[in-house]
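Thread: Newbie trying to understand structure tokens

Hi all, I'm a second-year student working on a class project, and my supervisor (Dr. K.) asked me to get a predicted structure for one chain before our next meeting. I've only ever worked with sequences, so writing a 3D structure as a token string is new to me. If someone could post the tokens and maybe explain what I'm looking at, I'd be very grateful. Here's the chain:
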Amino acid sequence: MYSKVAVGASLYGGTNSDSPEVSFAYQLSPVGLTTGGTHHRFMAELGLLGMQGSVLIGYSYRF
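---
Reply by user tm_fold:
Sure, no problem. This is what the structure looks like when written as tokens:
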């Protein structure tokens, strides 16, 4: 179980834009869970605020 606070920059712009726009980006996830073994791991987060949304799930494989 873990929590996450992240800050950074978001870079976006359409194909018709000469220069992309940069804005402030953040993510606050008060509850995160990780489970799995040495090579295979699954994770899930519940986010309150931010660029990634309110639910994030994922899988990772370690060589």
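A couple of things are worth pointing out once you decode it. The chain has one domain: 2-14+29-61. The chain is about 0% helix and 70% strand. Feel free to ask follow-ups in this thread.
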